[in-house]
Design brief:
By secondary structure, the protein is of the alpha/beta class. The chain has helices at residues 35-42, 71-79, 96-110, 121-125, 165-176, 198-209, 296-311, 315-335, 345-358; strands spanning 7-16, 46-51, 84-86, 113-115, 128-132, 135-143, 181-187, 214-216, 226-229, 232-235, 240-243, 246-247, 253-254, 262-270, 275-285, 290-292. The protein starts with 6 loop residues before the first strand and ends with a helix.
């Protein structure tokens, strides 16, 4: 089919465009993209990412970590051909309205479209509609309370749209009456879980049944399973695409491991009726550059996630995963030799609290 009759979308995971605390030098941005990935993005009509950061302001939320970026890092989106971002995440209002409004203004100046957050519920919940090659497509987002978000939009308050399954399904049904495709981008799930909760799978299926063409999830910061369901496609979590370190006020730093820096670019080719083709492109953030991932490790991570998903996830299996992430993983990470010298008494207290809460 001639390209003018199709729409090509690239979807990636989280953009953690952080910068070191008290630093006057902007952190790493999307200049880190390899030429191959940059060329891939330039071949797409839409390149969608989860912008999980905000410009800072004087007033900041009390909960840590806060994820702040710089104007220069945001400018790197434009040169990377990313032209659409979801702001529906738990860090969009880390600097309240002033930080959000600065980010919003900067994105508008760069010509980057956004959705999933706003100064009231009307703006936050509104889908964004694009018409490209005579194909009309709507992008919709919502945030689950389980992600730790502190600010949901209301008629009188800024924030992100709350995750209401019935309302989302109805919105998808309504949008499908006037659009060829609806893409839903939920911010949901649990951080570092290697697969979604059974209820998430049921919800994703119901969104496809309501008319969504694709469900493209974020928040866990790791790649979860990919699934073809009915006429649609589901990525429960796309993982970290650009994973800069995250900083706490006490000097603690979150550095991502190999598994957490592995993700996948999803390429959807659509005509005005259906998905014509899906391509998955494995990528790795080395900590310096973002490159195509042809390694054995990357392939193993992706196949393991898909294998677990294809077999079905039980409640017992999900509880075991919760224990692995909440109790075992923090101990393993802090016990790693490269971290041993940064281990402090405060970390023992954190681990003790986790174990007591799980017992």
């Amino acid at each position: 089919m001639d390209k003018k009759d199709t729409l090509r979308i690239a979807a990636v995971g989280d953009l953690l465009l952080t910068t070191p605390r008290s630093s006057t030098t902007p952190g790493r941005g999307l200049e880190a993209l390899s030429p191959q990935i940059r060329n891939l993005f330039s071949s797409c009509d839409v390149v969608l990412a989860n912008l999980e950061c905000t410009l800072p302001a004087e007033q900041q939320i009390s909960t840590e970590p806060r994820v702040f970026t710089t104007e220069k890092q945001l400018e790197s989106l434009q040169n990377a051909h990313i032209n659409l971002v979801t702001l529906a995440n738990n860090h969009a209002f880390d600097a309240f309205n002033p930080g959000f409004e600065k980010t919003e203004t900067k994105l508008k100046r760069l010509g980057i479209k956004f959705f999933g957050a706003g100064l009231d519920a009307t703006q936050a919940c509104a889908p964004i509609t694009l018409t490209i090659n005579d194909i009309r497509i709507a992008f919709l987002a919502a945030v689950s309370p389980s992600t730790g978000v502190e600010r949901f939009a209301t008629a009188e308050q800024s924030g992100v749209p709350s995750f209401d399954e019935h309302a989302i399904s109805q919105t998808i049904l309504n949008l499908k009456q006037t659009h060829d495709h609806v893409i839903f981008a939920p911010h949901w799930g649990e951080e570092r879980f290697r697969f979604p909760a059974p209820e998430q799978i049921n919800q994703a299926h119901r969104f496809i049944d309501s008319g969504a063409t694709a469900v493209l999830g974020h928040h866990p910061h790791v790649l979860q399973g990919l699934e073809h369901y009915q006429h649609g496609f589901i990525a429960y979590s796309l993982g970290n695409f650009l994973a800069n370190s995250v900083y706490w006020d006490d000097g603690d730093t979150l550095n991502w491991d190999r598994f957490e820096r592995t993700s996948t670019i999803i390429i959807l080719e659509l005509d005005n009726k259906q998905i014509r083709h899906v391509e998955t492109v494995p990528v790795l953030d080395t900590g310096h550059n973002i490159i195509l991932d042809h390694s054995h490790k990357g392939a193993k991570y992706r196949s393991s996630a898909n294998k677990v998903l294809s077999k079905g996830i039980t409640a017992a299996q999900y509880r075991r995963e919760s224990y692995r992430v909440s109790a075992l993983l923090p101990i393993v990470k802090k016990a790693a030799w490269e971290n041993i010298w940064s281990f402090r008494p405060a970390h023992l207290k954190k681990i003790a609290r986790i174990l007591l809460n799980k017992s």
